[in-house]
Amino acid sequence: MTSVPTDYDSARAALTRLIPLAMGDTGQARRVANFLMAWWNDPELGQFEIADMFGLDIDVANDITSVIGFLGQNDRGAVYIDGLGFAEEMQDVIALWRPSASAPQT
């Protein structure tokens, strides 16, 4: 079994790979985007189905596992992707996959 690092630096490195992937136009990109959006704001942006891990390449699944492991071991309370320095990138993911959620409210 492969050991997946779950420290802060590993989680950030995983996100630098996951975010560009989420900006693609594939089933894998959709699954990664759903994971990121569920972490960001599950009630409004949808959920991440755990079975979606089966449709990911092993390296991508390991990156998600690294992020989840980091979140589970964090003793500083809730940590969101913007707190790790990816707020602008996350807005881009939301604009691509949930354009109605990113539109300004009138």
TrEMBL record:
InterPro entries with a match to the protein in the record: DUF7673
Residues covered by the DUF7673 domain: 12-98
Pfam families membership: DUF7673
Protein known as: DUF7673 domain-containing protein
